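Let's do one together. I've listed all components of the complex below, 364 residues spread over two lines.
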Amino acid sequence: MVTQSLTAGAVTPAATQSQAEWRDWVLLLKPRVVSLVVFTGVIGLMIAPGHLHPVLAFTAILCIAVAAGAAGCLNMWWERDIDAKMRRTMRRPIPAGRIEPDAALAFGVALSVASVLVMWLATNTCAAVVLAISIAFYVFIYTMWLKRRTPQNIVIGGAAGAFPPVIGWAAVTGNIDIMPLLMFALVFFWTPPHFWSLSLYACKDYGAAGVPMLPVVAGGRETRRHIFFYTVLLAIAAVLPWALGYTGAVYGVTACLFSAAFGVFAWRVLRDKQDDTGRSLTGDIPARQAFRFSLLYLAVLFMALGVDHVIGHHG
Amino acid sequence: MADFPPRPSPVEAAELHRRQRGRNVAILVVLVGLAVLFFAITIVKLSKA
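Okay, and this is what the predicted structure of the assembly comes out as:
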């Protein structure tokens, strides 16, 4: 029996390495998250004043993408225990046993260091420093410190996802101005209603994994109030770039319309039929709709920033 | 006597080789891409200097 288990333990790493396909390594980088990060980074780079050679601009975006992927990889490495307990994440490469945790750690660290160094070589120190801060914030502040300790994890941790447009801007200008901070605020205030909408109906998974997401700790009713409150803050943050004169009417009108629509979705979440414990009696349909709309919302607003810039408004 | 893991069947061995080949090709593509990228960055930086 002992011999058998020792043998099994000895062959596991080799077997695991053989099981991994190149797609598994790509999955470690959370490609869906990276695509949104790249999009906001491109817009930040695009609307920044000044010019960056296309090769260097491509390199900057590549570094933002790789850094975001590396941070996602390190997140998966750290959270492999809770990933294994949640339906949504149990098929990820590490909990599914296709990639060894140590290999994922090495992969994430190597990509993190490489992305920061290449960013520094290709663009400037400011962009490289902000890129390094964004990785450190996501891995150390959000993943390792906040996520398992406080139901406000998403609020503070959401800052990690707000860095890319700032990095894109810094890659061109070498500094940080008001406009990139406004883009930061837009993503920062978008994250809580986006993620809490998801966590409302993925609540059981988080509870089983022991992650203190707001619905687990404070209940559905309180979470719905938080979603609505942060959607109002988001609407203010979204309109600010236009109100302060940094963008034109295309962005302004888009921000007003889509923020009003998001407000309607958040109101429906707030008014969702629920029992005494705050559990939805409608299968969380409003929360699911709000989550889907939140994805569209951020994409459209950043696209509007880009379109606004292209048609000639430079603030 | 140490126990050795059972030999993979021909089908399993073919599958393992396919995966290994896929990983090798991916590494090749990444390395060639990096070489081209560094070359391009160097040319751009030198042309600016």
